[in-house]
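Side project, low priority. Logging it here so it doesn't get lost.
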Amino acid sequence: MDRSEEDLIVGGYKFATVADAETARLEKKKIDNLEQHLDYRNSQNLLLVYNKAIDNRVFLTPVGLAYLQRMQTQLYHCGIPEEKIKPVPLYGTFSNKTENSSSIRRSLEARGVKAEYKGRFLTSVCINILMAAAIGALVLLSLRSDLPTIVNYRTTIVNEYSEWEQELSERERAVREAERALGQ
């Protein structure tokens, strides 16, 4: 057994994670401390410690829960009525089944979820295609437009200045011809 596997074993239990094993080690230290300081002959103190441990969820791992079970047995032997002894709470589930579900219903729900995601995917693809078509149309319109855009502003401005220059040249020629006609 290698070192990492040894890190998972505490109190005869093999835990799935190192964190759970560390929690069990801490609980084992708490148990050792209680064993040293707790008087098992005083049933009222034992009951008080037992109830506090349950109410405060001091023990969560099988190591701690087994200790609570031993305390519970000791309380029965001390003559404490069964009604006064709380049951050891289990905070996890131990099967995949829940009280209100069946495998058929879970299968149908899983298929419904898949269908819902498939519908969302198709909707997303359609919207993306429409957005791409809209962007393409906008680019095409901007390229074919006479108004200057970031794409063709230089050409538009050069053409505009050329037109002004040509118009000015024509006016100058017309003015010179009018002057000649008046001067003759």
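Brief comment: Strands lie at 9-10, 13-14.
Revisit when time allows.
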